[in-house]
Specification:
Layout lengths: L27 H4 L3 E3 L7 E4 L2 H12 L4 H15 L9 E8 L4 E6 L23 H4 L11 H12 L9 H9 L1 E2 L2 H7 L9 H6 L13 E2 L2 H13 L2 H4 L1 H11 L10 H5 L4 E4 L1 E5 L2 E5 L6 H11 L12 H21 L10 H4 L2 H8 L32 E7 L5 E7 L9 E2 L2 E2 L36 E5 L4 E6 L6 H14 L4 H6 L3 E4 L2 E4 L6 H9 L5 E2 L9 E5 L5 E5 L6 E4 L1
Parallel strand pairs: 1-21, 17-18
Antiparallel strand pairs: 2-10, 2-21, 3-4, 3-11, 4-7, 5-6, 8-9, 9-14, 10-11, 12-13, 14-15, 15-19, 16-17, 19-20
Helix pairs in contact: 2-3, 3-5, 3-6, 6-9, 13-14, 13-16, 13-17, 14-19
Length: 578
């Protein structure tokens, strides 16, 4: 591949992208409220958390691009306009449906721990876990990023257009400026640890000393230069050469320098494998394998399939009770057993075994009891309790192209603005803090999700694609939300498949995250009669309880042809088709 013009000159501008501001009213595209817009029965669609990213994806689809082509454009724009959630320095999981073969492929772009990582790297001198606010800003927090390499792998296989032409909108918006959205402005003004990091302050502070606010125009010429280089040289532009050198230099800086090396970056490899698929009633649900949250979604659905939740719609407290109890059983298993299967034994077959699901479902009684213990599925090693913190900083989008191919992709930098360290116009991830800070228990029993060199941290990301029993596309959905991702996705799937709601109505349902002894819910969105009915069954809801709000986005096939989309009103996105 040819070298991007000016790529060598990038090095001097890599640590912080210059930015400028001018007063301007928000454009309709940048400030439009969440919405679903589509002609009758569109056959191609994009649903994502920012209108500018949706527009970029639609432009690619209208040019004859595939769903994967559009996904590249969508991610490139999201990394610019929604940097609190994802970016070039982060990772992702993708499920892809090929309409010609009716096969679903899972792509794994999860970050990897450096070769210099050690099990105790997040312990202090006394052997106690570092405070999360300290660890997240440290150089040790960053792993080798995988989102761009994963997209390049998928696009080489399923793309139609030239890779080099998929970054035009991202480059233009970075160079000319984009209108800061209310959500981004709120993140800039938040009290999250990353907003106090020097790079974050420098990037989001205007020449007059004020922070960027909604309606300001933010320019990021360093990001424009980076996507130009990636357009010309692919992921090599990010993982080798001047940008890689700048990443390593930034990670090795204080506080608490990390060990990520140029060899770690150059050696990163995404993964591709058949999706993990299981039947659910008359459907087949396909998700990425571990270390994603996909197996947990399938376990929860397997438990719910053994209940009559379909007979209790969203207005019935019993439906939500079954949802909550199945969620608690699933989380107990997920938090104990799921990790990187390349490093530890993950008992996926045991967790999804019909006899095991029967036994777990029988634990759902007439009222809620104490937090359920992890089960003992076949093939499960003895793992200790987990000490993983999972903050939010993630986004999800769905693309369906005119041929019926589908991308469902969840993408992240982990915490808000990742580690708060900026290189070449983008934030570095803090994904290594997704490992258990305590690698062993007092008795020496290891945690499945302990840090190890080259290991990928456990994730809740679980982009789903639903098929009918003949392999035809039914729906695709996913969400951000830290560990609550699994509950958010489960809610949407139950809403669409069991309660027969539209995709938008399923997304609009109130969120309920039941994990251990905690029942977090959107009380403002929930009918008080539902909350009262749950309280009578031992489930007392509390407001919140999740790492971040949902950002569910999805697309559903309509009977007789065509598509309907849904965009989470809790964010700023939209679903548009043609």
């Amino acid at each position: 591949m040819r070298r991007a013009p000016g790529a060598i000159a990038l090095l001097s501008a890599l640590l912080l992208g210059a930015c400028a501001t001018q007063s301007a009213p928000p454009s309709p595209a940048a400030s439009a409220p969440p919405q679903v817009v589509a002609p009758a029965r569109p056959t191609a669609m994009v649903s994502a958390a920012n209108p500018l990213a949706v527009d970029a994806g639609l432009k690619v689809l209208r040019a004859g691009g595939s769903a994967v082509d559009a996904a590249v454009a969508v991610q490139a724009v999201l990394g610019l306009v929604e940097p609190q959630s994802s970016g070039l320095g982060g990772g992702a999981f993708m499920t892809y449906y090929d309409s010609a073969t009716r096969q679903v492929t899972a792509f794994n772009g999860r970050e990897t721990a450096p070769a210099g990582a050690t099990p105790g790297m997040f312990l202090d001198a006394a052997g106690k876990p570092l405070p999360f606010r300290v660890a997240v800003l440290s150089g040790r927090a960053t792993g080798a990023p995988g989102a761009v390499a994963m997209l390049a792998m998928a696009q080489a296989r399923f793309g139609k257009l030239a890779w080099s032409g998929l970054f035009a909108d991202a480059e233009r918006l970075a160079a000319d400026g984009f209108v800061v959205s209310p959500r981004l402005a709120g993140m800039i003004a938040s009290k999250e640890p990353e907003t106090a990091a020097p790079d974050t302050i420098a990037y989001f502070t205007k020449p007059d000393g004020a922070k960027y606010a909604a309606g300001d125009v933010l320019r990021n010429p360093a990001y424009a230069a980076t996507v130009r280089a990636i357009a010309a040289d692919g992921p090599k532009a990010l993982l080798e050469g001047p940008i890689a050198e700048a990443i390593v230099a930034r990670v090795h800086g204080d506080p608490i320098p990390g060990t990520l090396s140029k060899a770690d970056l150059a050696g990163y490899r995404p993964k591709s494998e058949p999706a993990l698929c299981r039947p659910y009633r008359v459907y087949v649900i396909c998700v990425p394998p571990a270390p994603s949250g996909g197996p947990a979604v399938l376990e929860a659905l397997g438990i719910l399939e053994r209940t009559d939740i379909a007979a209790h719609g969203p207005a019935d407290p019993q439906g939500w009770y079954l949802f909550a109890e199945a969620s608690r059983l699933m989380y107990a298993d997920r938090d104990r057993y799921l990790a990187d299967p390349d490093f530890v034994t993950v008992p996926v077959e045991g967790l999804l075994d019909p006899a095991y699901l029967d036994a777990r479902a029988r634990l759902i009684g007439p009222t809620a009891g104490p937090p359920p213990a992890p089960g003992k599925p076949k093939g499960a090693p003895v793992w200790g309790p987990d000490a993983t913190r999972e903050p939010g900083g993630t986004t999800h989008f769905v693309v369906v192209d005119a041929d019926g191919d589908v991308v469902s992709m969840t993408t992240t930098v982990e915490s808000i603005f990742g580690s708060g360290r900026l290189v070449a116009g983008f934030f570095l991830n803090n994904q290594i803090t997704d490992f258990s800070f305590s690698p062993t228990q007092d008795d020496g029993t290891p945690a499945a999700n302990a840090v190890a060199p080259g290991k990928r941290p456990r994730s809740a990301m679980s982009p789903a694609i639903v098929l009918d029993r003949d392999g035809r596309f039914v729906a695709a959905v996913g969400s951000p939300g830290g560990p609550a991702i699994i509950a958010y996705n489960l809610k949407a799937l139950v809403g669409v498949l069991d309660w027969k709601l539209s995709m938008q109505a399923a997304i609009d349902l109130p969120n309920l995250v039941a994990r251990g002894a905690n029942y977090g819910a959107e009380l403002g969105r929930m009918d008080p009669a539902i909350a009262a009915g749950l309280a009578a069954k031992g489930i007392v809801l509390k407001s919140g309880g999740a790492a971040e709000g949902s950002g569910l986005h999805g697309v559903k096939a309509l009977p007789g042809g065509g598509l309907e989309g849904g965009a989470d009103p809790r964010r700023e996105g939209k679903a548009i088709g043609f």
